[in-house]
Design brief:
The complex is a heterodimer of chains A (205) and B (200). By secondary structure, chain A is an alpha/beta fold. Chain A contains 4 helices and 8 strands; from the N terminus they run βββαββββαβαα. The chains are: A alpha/beta (205), B alpha/beta (200).
Chain lengths: 205, 200
């Protein structure tokens, strides 16, 4: 299926494979991920300027580590590469965020966090993106997650109905200012810090 | 309404006033339904086909689609409903003025369908009261049949009969429409998945 090749000159590269579709897969030590990604992005002759996708794979075999997969493309060179980081279950599921290199990593990493529970260190706004922010049942794409969720259907309905839909919008987007009182404390603080757009000062009179 | 007494001419008939009022009101309501489309999935495509020229549910008085719940009579939930949209459809339902009806279009809206998983509401009747369930993956004819069934239901209502009248059904103090046991019961797996356990 895959053929091992020599280790490419990527910093922190552990090994490399050629996937069935001919694409190169580089396994990188998780401590050196950011270094490797910066090298891939900025080195002349590499120039992988586009982060296509970030996703993760958990295997049925509990012994195998969870993989975080980065799909990179060089728009200039019309070349692709896949970078994988392995996160053993015995260690903390955390890896450095590549948001500083590709802004597009923002939502992609949030999705991996939402579905797999992988923490991205240095991400500016790491919170759930697909499930609602108060979702408490865990990380749905993990193998340990039951298909129908952990809570009873009635509890799921109750929790879903008690979510405040307005909480998904910034204070600016809310036409009713008093809904701010219904937001969870941490969310209100974050919005006031301006992480979802800057709250303008009142006009001077 | 039936003829009574000695009738010399067939140009009049006698009826109970209440029946006459009900007939007038219900006919008006049934034949001028304004739908609020709540399209979430492929059923919304069939809904659009139903609204378009070939099937044209304007023939049944649904000429104006109300994209504001404030001016709608019937909420048509076309497609599966994820839990994330549950408070939204409830809010829309609460915003609709009385009298209001709900059509649950398709198996996914009615029961969760094949989406028996952590993210999907197992039947929108756990969220809002439903009047007509359209089964399966309905083609436009299926939705039209559901609309005609709703007409029939509306014409059977009565302004004067508290049993037949639809009252407001607010959520209880727990924020639920039905008792938790009922929700669990109607959300049970069915069909091919009955042999699976909840934890599987």
């Amino acid at each position: 299926m895959t053929a091992a090749t020599s280790v490419p000159p990527v910093p922190g590269a552990l090994r490399s494979e050629v996937a069935r579709d001919g694409e190169t897969v580089v396994f990188v030590a998780k401590e050196r991920l950011l270094e490797a990604m910066r090298w891939l992005k900025e080195t002349p002759g590499q120039e992988f300027d586009y982060l296509v996708d970030v996703t993760a794979v958990e295997f049925r075999d509990r012994e195998r580590p969870l993989q975080v997969v980065y799909f990179l493309r060089s728009l200039q060179r019309k070349a692709d590469v896949r970078v994988k980081v392995e996160l053993p279950a015995s260690e903390e599921l955390a890896v450095d965020s590549v948001y500083s290199l590709w802004r597009g990593a923002d939502w992609l990493e949030r999705e991996v966090f939402d579905m797999f529970g992988v923490t991205f260190r240095g991400h500016p706004d790491l919170r759930r993106i697909l499930m609602w922010e108060t979702y408490a049942e865990g990380y749905p794409l993990r193998k340990s997650f039951p298909l129908r969720g952990r809570f009873s259907r009635a509890e799921q309905v109750r929790q879903a109905l008690n979510v405040n839909p307005e909480a998904n919008y910034s204070l600016e987007e809310l036409s009713i200012a008093d809904a701010a009182g219904d937001l969870p404390d941490d969310m209100r603080e974050r919005l006031q810090r301006g992480e979802r757009g800057v709250i303008p000062d009142p006009p001077a009179r | 309404m039936k003829h009574v007494g000695e009738v010399k001419s067939s140009n009049y008939l006698l009826a109970k006033f209440e029946n006459l009022v009900d007939w007038a009101v219900n006919s008006s309501r049934a034949n001028s339904l304004w739908p609020m489309p709540f399209g979430t999935a492929c059923c919304a495509i069939e809904f659009m086909a139903t609204a378009a020229s070939r099937f044209d549910f304007a023939r049944f008085g649904m000429e104006r689609q109300a994209f504001s719940p404030r001016q709608a009579d019937v909420l048509i939930c076309a497609g599966r409903l994820p839990f994330k949209l549950a408070p939204v459809i409830r809010r829309i339902y609460d915003q609709m003025p009385q009298p209001k009806w709900v059509i649950s279009m398709g198996a996914c809206a009615s029961t969760g369908g094949v989406f028996d998983n952590y993210a999907m509401v197992q039947g929108i009747d756990t969220i809002v009261p439903v009047d007509v369930y359209v089964p399966g993956c309905p083609p436009p004819e299926g939705l039209l049949y559901g609309v005609l069934l709703l007409h029939k239901k509306i014409k059977g209502e009565s302004l004067f009969d508290a049993v037949k009248r639809r009252d407001e059904q607010p959520l209880d103090e727990k924020g639920l429409r039905l008792p938790p046991e009922t929700i669990d019961e109607i959300s049970e797996p069915f069909g091919n998945s009955v042999h699976q356990f909840r934890s599987s």
